[in-house]
């Protein structure tokens, strides 16, 4: 049984290697002179060799397709209908892209759960045959992001593969994100809680409401609708994501109140994609409200006039009117040792703070509007806080390490539930908004797809048994060589190999028994015959005992 639909879902460490790599083909839907066919001349950038804007765009899409294809197994080609069209774009927000499955199927040969909708790409993989009569994924991206001052202040797409987008928006993680939706990271259930055609979908069977103690497939329609806005209490119930959450997520950020009248002893805080990371040692200081004279005087968007009071203290700034990085930079210039940004709209979760500015070296956090107002009310008596982390709680997970799903109130169509929550730190690929510290790692998304059935297994988490604890390399990107570092415990046989994006073996660097501890291996960018390989993306695959770990590396010449 199949169902045709167009599902829109608006928008680091690769830990497994697909034995039978999927082929993902980009189907260009753009017309002459636009989108992928834009003939505007462009210089190669960040490993992208294209010499026109259109070709660079297409190269990014194929790069994202190659990354997912190398990680996910399927004997059926996955066809992605892609195009650039004008989408919503304002001064401070924009729809970057949207994607979803063209069709869903149920009760096919190979389906692991009866009477359950599967996204077509996964259904084809499980059935080992092409069930569809058309393409598999629809994807549309915003052509208005082109340097227009009226669109995100003149921001443009960045088409490089190296994560050096600066103040622009890197297209690669956005494409990876949207393809993720099309491959299965989305539910068919909307705000009303109604199931598509009266049948549950696969994603839905993993959505758990901690308040009710039920998964969505065991709820009534009314219960699902209520759960969809049960902020902080909706989680992904898959065992692979839960097991790998400690590998990916940081300790949860926390504000400890040392003095502050009626303030509670602790206040939840959100983190920023820029500035210094919080540590267990913490940052302690008095809280001082900024003043920039121009109404509203507490938004920190104009020159600050109370710099002397801010120096050596933690600045409290209201959200609104200018970028988070502008606010933080102004406070830092005045001598503040940290920044707290209070939300300007009601909500139960401290907002994630996006932006990029490497010059900001102090911690920047957020609080809800209610907590911001409570702190302001006590400033007259003096408020002293410590910005720290909770070593017993993962950022973006519940106390059982189940990763939270995005469930804001009110419901956000195209975003609610079909994303990881914004409280996750570091930011995850499948959060509802792209962040500057994302590039091409698929983090917990691969574990998520393993829960769905794309893969049979992933490596065990650190501390859960013998195997690999670290796989890294430096530099990355590199030219002409990179040093690969790995740690194993206990002593065991290992195989360290380099693969191309299609899953073809390029070179085996090590094979044999290695002692417990840290090891280093140099790859000089050459294959087994000693020939220099071309610029592009490669994968380091380390196999130790029953565990496999893979890391993406980029060779730039």
Give structural notes.
By secondary structure, the protein is α/β, with parallel strands linked by helices. Helix content is 16%, strand content 28%. The chain has nine helices and 28 strands. The strands form seven sheets. The chain has an eight-stranded mixed beta sheet, sandwiched between helices. It has a four-stranded mixed beta sheet with strand order 1-5-6-10. Strands 2-3-7-4 form a four-stranded mixed beta sheet, with helices on one face. Helix 5 packs antiparallel against helix 9. The radius of gyration is 24 Å and the shape is globular. The model is unreliable at 1-19 and 459-465 (pLDDT under 50).
What keyword list fits this structure?
557 residues, 9 helices, alpha/beta, disordered N terminus, globular, single chain
Shape: globular
Q: What is the number of E strands?
A: 28
**Unreliable segments of 5+ consecutive residues:** 1-19, 459-465
- The DSSP helix count reads 9
Q: What's the oligomerization state? A: single chain
Radius of gyration: 24 Å
Largest sheet: 8 strands, mixed
Structural class: alpha/beta
| Average residue pLDDT | 87
Task: Report the portion of residues in β strands.
Answer: 25-35%
Distance linking N and C termini: 49 Å
Strand line-up of the largest beta sheet:
15-14-21-17-18-19-20-16
Share of helix, binned: 10-25%
Quick recap:
By secondary structure, this protein is an alpha/beta fold. 16% of the residues lie in helices and 28% in strands.
